[in-house]
Structure formats: structure tokens, C-alpha cells
Specification:
This protein is mostly beta strands. Helix content is 9%, strand content 37%.
């Protein structure tokens, strides 16, 4: 093996190490960029709609006319102005680990409600529960292109040994006029 080959392999290994986050959990469509909307467009999703890569309960809306922090689109968790709309996704979470759930949050223009973060097992016998409630920044004007986004984080308890290797992460509006969500990540937490 030549010096050049060894050096090239070392550089490639370093690049791969820096390019991936070993503790990251796969979240499908974390910034709601799929489906891609026309500039300034929006799309309402109802229960059983396909294409969002999140399961919808109630009515949610992807909008492309705001200042989304990651990409061009964000999610209004409740598009119906009625309580309890949500989106959820099953994520792979090996047992014995804690996780940090991070996302960006912005107020709706009309009297925004708080956002509930739910975590745990779903289903009829599951342990899905509200683990945190987040209040968006106060809307001070400027329209959809000047929303005050803020980063929100929650650290989970360790996933118990008798738990399946997955959890359900859910974002739910406490009432109508939900806030907007974008840039969702779930990663192992070692703090």
C-alpha cells in the first residue's frame, strides 16, 4: 500500500466521521419539505393522507409562505382551528438510552396556542403522554415572513430495558390556532 493510498483512506474516514452524527435518530421529513409546494403555496392534510411521512390526526397544514428556519416550508399543527389535531411518527430508539428532541417553534398570527410534545408508546395500551408544553414567542407583527422562531428541546428519560426499540414522537396543538413547527431532530443524549 502506498503512502498516498493510506493518506487518502485516512482523509475519507475523517470526513465520514464528521459528516454523520452517530447518535442521530432517523426522522422522516423533519422540515416538512415533502411534498414540495409551489412558492407561497400551502396544502392541508387530513387523517390518512399520504405524502407527508407523518401520520395525521385531525387537520394539519404545510405552508410555504413563511420564513421557515430549515428549508422553505413549515407545519401548522392545527389547520382546523379546533383542538387536538396532531402529527406523529414512530422513531427507532434503542433501549437504555436518553434522547434529545429538538425543533423550531413559531407563533401563528392569530392568538397562538401552546404546543404539546408527546413521547412514548402509542396504541390502545401504550404509554404515550404529554411530556412538555411549549409556548411560542409572542407575535409582534411583520407577517408570515417575520415570524419569531425559537429552538425548543426536551430530554427524555432513558428507554427502559423492557420497552420495544421504538417510540412515538407527537406534536399536538392544545387548541386551535396552533403554532408552527419545523426542523425536528431526535438524537441520543449523553449529558
Amino acid at each position: 500500500m502506498t503512502k498516498f493510498t493510506i493518506s487518502a483512506c485516512a482523509v475519507l474516514i475523517c470526513l465520514l466521521c464528521f459528516a454523520t452524527n452517530a447518535g442521530a435518530v432517523a426522522v422522516a421529513n423533519p422540515s416538512f419539505e415533502e411534498p414540495a409546494l409551489p412558492e407561497g403555496g400551502s396544502k392541508i392534510f387530513i387523517r390518512d393522507d399520504k405524502g407527508l411521512k407523518w401520520t395525521v390526526y385531525g387537520t394539519v397544514q404545510v405552508i410555504g409562505y413563511c420564513n421557515a428556519p430549515d428549508g422553505k416550508q413549515a407545519l401548522l399543527v392545527d389547520a382546523s382551528k379546533k383542538p387536538c389535531s396532531n402529527v406523529y411518527q414512530v422513531v427507532r430508539t434503542p433501549v437504555g438510552k436518553r434522547y434529545k428532541i429538538s425543533f423550531q417553534l413559531a407563533p401563528n398570527l392569530d392568538n397562538p396556542s401552546d404546543l404539546q410534545l408527546m413521547w412514548g408508546l402509542g396504541g390502545k395500551t401504550g404509554t404515550l403522554k404529554v411530556v412538555a408544553v411549549f409556548k411560542p414567542e409572542k407575535y409582534t407583527g411583520g407577517g408570515w415572513k417575520k415570524l419569531p422562531w425559537k429552538k425548543c428541546e426536551f430530554i427524555t428519560d432513558a428507554v427502559p430495558a423492557d420497552h420495544p426499540p421504538y417510540n412515538v414522537v407527537t406534536f399536538q396543538a392544545e387548541r386551535g390556532n396552533s403554532p408552527l413547527v419545523d426542523a425536528i431532530t431526535v438524537e441520543e443524549y449523553n449529558g
